[in-house]
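Supplementary Note 3. Input sequence used for the single-chain structure prediction.
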Amino acid sequence: MNEEEYLKRIRRALWSIDRRKREEIVLELKSEIDERLSSGEKFEKIILDLPQPEELRREYEEIYGSSMMVKSLFVIFALVLSIFSLPVIPFTSCLFYGAPAILAILAIFLFYISSHFGMSTGFLASSLSASLRFVLIYLTSLSLSLENGTVISEGITSLIILLIPLLAKKRK
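The predicted structure, written as discrete structure tokens, is reproduced below.
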């Protein structure tokens, strides 16, 4: 492995950190490598002293956290899952028997978001998911839902989704 390959591995490992912070970290490592190379050290010895990409990722994620883009992607994915957890809207009606499984996956995913990205991001994701479920229920199938009692059960499920971040362990 050479210097460029090592720095590429660092960039890939730090993908979830804000781009500017990531580039600062890479530049700092590059300057340390260049300084040690100019003092006569061999790259093979330098690379043994430098942190491995995964160690660096864990350390800097603790310091900086994930970027807004990464958090946004997770929230958007939770919204998509929440749509497919409703078997009463026309384009998801084919998922009637799979909807409970998708709902369970959504709950686990919201729990993951809350514990990994923090309570505020988890609460945002669950609030948007629950709100979207409420809106879809009432806009697309109010009459069907009233006939089958689905509004009450889906409404209760949506409220439970709102509470999931409260169950997540706070990140230190």
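The first helix runs from residue 3 to 13. The chain is about 75% helix and 0% strand.
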